[in-house]
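=== RUN LOG ===
request id: a7f3
mode: sequence -> structure
chains: 1
length: 205
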Amino acid sequence: MVDEDTPRWVDTLIRAGASAVPLVGGPLEVLLSDVRERRAAKVRALVSDIERMAGEESFLQRVSSDPRLEGLFVDAVEAAVRTSIEAKRKLLARAVADASVDPTDIDHSELVVGALRELDVQHVHALAALASEWDRMQQETGVTLGTSQVWPTLPEPIRAVLVRTATGKSAPQMLTAQQAPWRANGITDFGLEVLAALRLEGMNN
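=== RESULT ===
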């Protein structure tokens, strides 16, 4: 199991930031202490979930001998520390555990963790809106250009993150009319997969 003081680098990072603030002490020091403990608790929960799914001894052996799994684990820890979404932390743990149990899953796990590092509350809300729109689009009949009405309404920074994580896409310059429902822009298949996985871990949106 992870030591109660883990991760020390989190504590060091916060202390380094606090040292740059004049007259740190009193209530602010208490606040920073609480932040350190909350972040350490997130890591303990992440590691506990990974050990439960992958087996403690097996995971320790794999992560200590596989640099790629080690990097995936570190990325998952960093993402878990920064998020307020419990379902995201659980999905990060599952991705690492999957890669530990079956090394052939590591490619996919890296994609999921890489996306989750950038996706947070506002991005997941956007994906949920786009997914709901896609559900409605599939009920439509007749010729369609597959353009999303929701996509242009999203703030540009949100769209940029969705495109960068391959969970969303912009429409091509040339649109093609098709009979079957399709997506020229909006949420991608990978975006639908990530959203479904978050919901499976308890994400409500």
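=== NOTES ===
The mean pLDDT is 86.
The CA atoms of residues 4 and 41 lie 9 Å apart.
=== END ===
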